[in-house]
Amino acid sequence: MIGKISGRIEYRATDHVLIDVRGVGYLVYCSERTLAGLPGAGEAAALYTDLLVREDVLQLFGFPTLVEKEWHRLLTSVQGVGAKASLAILGTLGPDGVSRAIAIGDWNAVKAAKGVGPKIAQRVVLDLKDKAPGVMAMGGTPAATADATDVDVIEPVGAPAARAAPAPSSAQAEALSALANLGYTPGDAAGAVARAAGEAPEADTPALIRAALKLLAPQS
Question: How many Å apart are CA 111 and CA 101, to the nearest integer?
């Protein structure tokens, strides 16, 4: 299994890039959002990858962070959601948007992705709601950009990623853990934290916990 590729971009297309790794070209399919964030041809790049294996095809899909890769894996586990639909959802919402939409049950946001109908969007939210907290807690560590000394590196799944600073979602992860310790279900906790974070993106952990508790409090 190929879990990460670092190399130089040989060329870019509308839905994929060709990354040259020591003379071997890897065709990697990406969302529009991911493609927009990649450098031009001839530049070094690194992507986490997921390999789709079928009887008649082998396809690599690339993601800038482990969180996005994990959401792709989960999205494609939902009946009726293939790799193309998953990339459309991630390209439209981004990993943070997917986390928030699923946590608060906003299937209309999922439906905004090209080719995703209301039934599929509702199924995505229903099937993955309780899995949102685990993905949100992962943070958003990016794949380090390759340079001239490491363009020939292919790392296996599970390779440790360098982490110079806490991920922006660390406050959300800590808030989720705190709510879980208070006895709230993963789905309820994730929904409250996602709403609180959406209303106050810069809030620290204590502020998120207070806001989430207010949202979870019984309405009189």
Answer: 10
